[in-house]
Amino acid sequence: MAFIFNKKQHKLELPISSRGHAKLSPKKKGANSAWSLPLKLKLRSPVGILFILCGFLYLLTRVFTEDGSGASYKSFTLEDKEYYDYEFKDVDVEAIRKYDSGAEHYLITKGGVEALSEADKATYDREVQMLLDSTVEEYDLSKYEGTSHGAENKEHVLMLIPLRNAENVLPLMFKNLMNLTYPHELIDVAFLVSDCSEGDNTLGALMEYSKELQNGTLSLLLADQEERNDKANPKGSQDLFLKYMKQEYLDKVREAFNPPFHENYDKPFRSIQIFQKDFGQIIGQGFSDRHAVTVQGIRRKLMGRARNWLTANALKPYHSWVYWRDADVELCPGSVIQDLMAMDYDVAVPNVWRPLPDFLGGEQAYDLNSWVESTEALKLAKNLDEDDVIVEGYAEYPTYRVHLAYIRNPNGDPTEVLPLDGVGGVSILAKAKLFRNGVHFPAFTFENHAETEAFGKMAKKMGYSVGGFPHYTLWHIYEPSDDDIKQIAAIERDSGRV
Ligand SMILES: Nc1nc2c(ncn2[C@@H]2O[C@H](COP(=O)(O)OP(=O)(O)OP(=O)(O)O)[C@@H](O)[C@H]2O)c(=O)[nH]1
Ligand SMILES: [Mg+2]
C-alpha cells in the first residue's frame, strides 16, 4: 500500500477542490480561480466563443435591468470564527481547514486498486459529514409534529412569555416555571420584554433570575428574598386584601410554592433566551388602563405583532410544540403542558379564573377570550366595519357566545373538552407545525378579531382543531382595582381596625 498525492481529478478525491480556493471559507470565494480552466477549453471552438458571448450578454442585461441601479453584488469578508459561529453540529474547524489548504489524498492498494482502510474510510466519512454539517442542517419535520405523549416521546417545547412592566410578578412566574413537570431539558424558554416604562427593571431582574435558574440556585435566592421582604414589610401593611381572600385559595397558593417540590424543581431548562424589542405600546399597563373598551383593538393588534415577532425569532425546526404563557398567572398545575398535550388537539387552552375578595364574590371567570362562535356574533360582525375588533365582556358587543370560562364546574371532569373558535392568550399550547404553516396572531382585523382570538379562528379556518378544558383551571393573579382598595379601606374603617 502507498499514499501518494496527485493533482488529477479523481473519484476518490475528497469533495473539496484544492485549486487555490476554499468552498468552506467564504472569505476566499471572491477570488475564485475555477473560471480559468473552462475558459481555456471553451475558447478553442467557435461554439465555445458563442457560449461565452451569450453568457456575457446575459450578465450585462441582469446588471442593468434588475433594479435599474446597475449596482453589482459586493462581496465581503467573514472571519473564520464568525462563519463557524452558528449552530452547526460536530464541526472541527481544524479538520476542515486542512482541505482548505489544498491537500488531495488517494490511497492505492498493493494491486494498484484504489481503496481506503477501515480507519481511513471512517475518517473520510466523518469529515465529509462535517463539511456538510458546516453549511447544511437537516431536519425531517415529520418527526416534530407533536403527539399527545410529548414527554415520553422527548418532544421539544418552545415556551414563549411576553413581558411588560412585569418586574413584580417575576418571582411568581419563575416559581411557576420551576413547578413545571414537563422535562425542563426539553423546554426552550424565550421571553420578549417590550415597551416598559422608564425606571422599570423587568429586563434586569429577568436576566438575574434567569441566570440563577440556569445555575440551579433560583429557589434559594427567592426564599432569601422573601424572608427579607417579610422582615421589611410586616404582614398586613401591603397585602391587606389577602385578609379578604378565601382561605381555601390561599392554602392552595401556599401548597404550590412550598416544599415538597417535584424532584426536578431546580433543574435548568434546555435554554433561556431574552429578547428586548419595543413595539410602541402606549396604552398603560395598569388594570383600568388596559381594560378600557376603546383601546382593546389597538392593544391587541400590537400584542399580535409582538407575539409574531417572538415566534419568528425563537422557533427552531426541532420544536414540536409552542406553549404561550402570561407571566401574571398565580396558580397552575405543574403538569399543565402534559395535560394540554393529552387533549390531542392542535391548539389547547385551559380555563382561566381569578380569585376575588369575599365581598366581591370570592372568585370570577377571567379570560373571556376562549369561546364558541354564535349566530348572534356573526350577525353583529356583518354590521361592523371591516376593521372593527369585537371584544368579549363589553356591553358594546353582545355576542351571546358560549364562553369556556362560564361553563366551568369546579367538580367537573378536568379532561372534558369543548371545541372552540376563539382562544385567550394566558396559556395556549399549540403544535409548532401551525406556525410553520402560517397560522399566526393577526396584528390586523381578521374576521373582526385580532391577536389570540383571531389566532384561534385562523387555526380553525386552516383545518386545525382548537379546544379548551372547561373544568381545568388556571388562576390569574388578583390585582385590586382602585375601587376595590377603597372598599377594603372602608370595611377596615367600619370594623374599627384602622
Ligand atoms: N412584550 C409585551 N408583553 C406584554 C405587553 N402587554 C402585556 N404584556 C405581557 O403579556 C402578558 C399578558 O398581559 P396582560 O396585561 O395581563 O394582558 P392580558 O392578559 O391581555 O390582559 P388581562 O386579561 O387583563 O390580564 C403578561 O405577561 C404581560 O406582562 C406588550 O405590549 N408587550
Ligand atoms: Mg393578565
Automatic annotation (TrEMBL):
GO terms for biological process: cell wall mannoprotein biosynthetic process; protein N-linked glycosylation. It comes from the Eukaryota. Belongs to the ANP1/MMN9/VAN1 family. InterPro entries: Mannan_Polymerase_Subunit, Nucleotide-diphossugar_trans. GO terms for molecular function: alpha-1,6-mannosyltransferase activity. Pfam families: Anp1. SUPFAM superfamilies: Nucleotide-diphospho-sugar transferases. PANTHER family: MANNAN POLYMERASE I COMPLEX VAN1 SUBUNIT (PTHR43083:SF5), MANNAN POLYMERASE II (PTHR43083). Signal peptide: none annotated. It comes from Lachancea fermentati (Zygosaccharomyces fermentati). This is LAFE_0G07228g1_1.
